[in-house]
Amino acid sequence: MVSRQRISAGVAEEAIDALLSGADEAMVNAFTTGFRVTQVQAAISKALPDAGAVTAALESAQVVALGILVREQMDPAQFASIYRPFATVLPGPTYRPPAPIDRQIAAFLRLLPTLKGEVEAEVAAVAKALSEKPKAPAAVGAGAAVNVIAAPVALDPAANYTAAWKHVIGMANQTARTQAFRVMQDSAEQAAPHDGLGIVGFAGVAAGAIFMRDVLPIEKVLLLYEPFGSAFPYEALG
């Protein structure tokens, strides 16, 4: 759901729209209307009971399907950004196994100082979404503004993020890796831009998740890495 809020995601989807005019109309319709959509929605609903999450996941699945239709006309990096929400849990056409942990961390530390401009602002926006509890929707009436990208009240991305981080810390203690874990965390915090956008601590969290990836469910690693997922896709580290 957080991924769907990225400005860069909207830009990539616009690129797909421009290419779909030359795609097979029947294939396009299969993934945007009718029985196939119902099938996908039913499958997603088995894993995500929250209606808001199902809607976001269905939209992402549809975008990915349409991206695959026009993949040969897309820049590889652009397609990778489209497929990113599913890349690790459901490997795509260009999948390659993750690099060793030390290489992933080295790549992450090397890339962090390069964050600048709009890319850095997007990282900060996602980090903020993962650190703030969702606000209750304002009453809609005369003159009332409607926040169209707010997460449904039933979901709490910040709570999930915090719980995943506590789990990582617990696993570091259980496996007697706390000292090395803190070194990785500190190294990332020092490498991240210190310009007031608030991503320093999130860089430490992401590095800690990578360091502990061998004892964590992949969905927790990806959640903790999420702020940087578009700037430096996890699957491409190393």
Major sheet description: none
Number of DSSP E strands? 0
State the helicity in percent bands.
55-70%
**Shape designation:** globular
- Rg from alpha-carbon coordinates: 19 Å
**Mean of residue pLDDT?**
83
First and last CA, distance: 26 Å
Report the structural category: mainly alpha
**DSSP helical segment count:** 11
Residue ranges: pLDDT <50 for 5 or more in a row? 137-153
- Report the portion of residues in β strands: under 5%
* SSE string: HHHHHHHHHHH
Summary of the model, kept short:
This protein has helices at 7-19, 25-30, 35-47, 51-69, 76-83, 101-111, 117-129, 157-174, 178-191, 200-211, 218-225. By secondary structure, it is mostly helical.
What does this structure look like?
The chain is mainly alpha-helical and 238 residues long. Helices cover 57% and strands 0% of the residues. The protein has eleven helices and no strands. The radius of gyration is 19 Å and the shape is globular. The model is unreliable at 137-153 (pLDDT under 50).
